[in-house]
Specification:
2 domains; 14 strands; 3-stranded antiparallel sheet; binds nicotinamide-adenine-dinucleotide; Rossmann fold; alpha/beta
Length: about 325
């Protein structure tokens, strides 16, 4: 009899982000087997029970339980959402020391379980945390993927879609760089359907205005702060991004997103994790897409790399 493949995902950190991801995964039937781990074992148990009690209304009989790091041994994906979150007014980089210490504790347990799958990292500051995971996990960098600017790119597509009154899925545009204040939009690479957005603006000067798009770029950059002040944290958008990334990995989709990945000479940089367009397949990152950035856009990208690199060196000297 043919062996039935079981797509197994372990989620470490059952807070707002981890559980929004788990809930999205259940509703999209994105895996067959889901294990929840949290330092607060009781919370993980309660969350698993709560999800299981909805199974009879779901689209399949997913296995869900709380567990421990031995569950990572045969997992396809371990998603790391554990750690401290921003409080209103706090930037992502100031979380680094706290979350680095948490990951120093978590990642060796995952590694020592014999895990050979793909790590998805959501914890902030996500570019630096992804690099730390890669270093601590002692695995191929292609198997360590941060959510990078996936959420920011989704916010951007949504807002551009609103402006042009077009489905965001027909907007092809990216936020690149740090998932943070130095992120930027390479507008030369932004398209509505297959038409360049700057070209649409210059052909329709009475209808559309480039300054409105720059304002959208700023709104995207400030989105997290706005949501954190309003409701204490962001969770659904990133959870949808993680679920989409999970489906792309488990489905060997070769889909393109803007995750945080290790640069190896692309865009003239190497050795750091940052958000760039990349092709995702069953093994993680297949390759980075090298976009033709303008001179100004490339300068913005380098500035963002410098911010991430110097934060890594200043705030985590023990890892350098
Ligand atoms: P939260 O406080 O709600 O949850 C964190 C969870 O981690 C808690 O359940 C806590 O018990 C658990 N935890 C802490 N230390 C642990 C350890 N050593 N082992 C196992 N579990 C541990 O926080 P949240 O709102 O879910 O945010 C989680 C992270 O995700 C934060 O760093 C936040 O900034 C980040 N985040 C990232 C994005 C993104 O786009 N990448 C978006 C939103 C939030």
């Amino acid at each position: 009899m043919r062996k039935v493949e079981s797509r197994k995902v372990v989620i470490v950190g059952c807070g707002l982000v981890g559980m929004s991801y788990a809930y999205a995964m259940l509703n999209q039937r994105a895996c067959d087997n889901m294990v929840l781990i949290d330092i607060d074992k009781n919370k993980a148990r309660g969350e698993a029970d709560d999800l299981c009690h909805g199974l009879s209304f779901s689209h399949g009989n997913m296995k869900i339980k709380s567990g421990d790091y031995s569950d990572c041994a045969d997992a396809d994906i371990v998603a790391l959402c554990a750690g401290a979150a921003q409080v209103p007014g706090e930037d992502r980089l100031s979380l680094l020391q706290r979350n680095a210490a948490i990951f120093e504790n978590i990642v060796p347990h995952v590694r020592n379980s014999g895990f050979h799958g793909v790590y998805i990292v959501a914890t902030n500051p996500v570019d630096i945390m992804s690099r730390l995971v890669w270093e601590l996990a002692e695995t191929n960098s292609k198997k360590v993927i941060g959510t990078g600017t996936m959420l920011d790119s989704s916010r951007l597509r949504y807002m551009i879609g609103q402006y042009f009154t077009v489905d965001p899925r027909n907007i092809h545009a990216y936020v690149m760089g740090e998932h943070g204040d130095s992120e930027f939009v390479p507008w030369s690479q932004a398209f509505l359907s297959t038409k360049s957005i700057p070209a649409i603006i210059s052909e329709n000067p009475t209808r559309f205005d480039m300054s409105k798009l720059w304002q959208i770029e700023m709104e995207v950059r400030n989105s997290a702060d706005k949501i954190i002040s309003a409701k204490g944290g962001t969770c659904y958008g990133v959870a949808m991004a993680m679920t989409r990334l999970t489906a792309a990995i488990l489905g060997d989709e070769h889909s393109i997103f803007t995750p945080s990945v290790l640069l190896n000479g692309e865009y003239g940089r190497e050795g750091l994790y940052i958000g760039v367009p990349a092709v995702v397949d069953r093994n993680g990152i297949r390759e980075i897409v090298n976009l033709q950035l303008s001179r100004d856009e490339l300068a913005q990208f380098h500035l963002s790399c410098d911010v991430v690199e110097s934060a890594y060196r200043e705030l985590a000297p023990q890892f350098v």
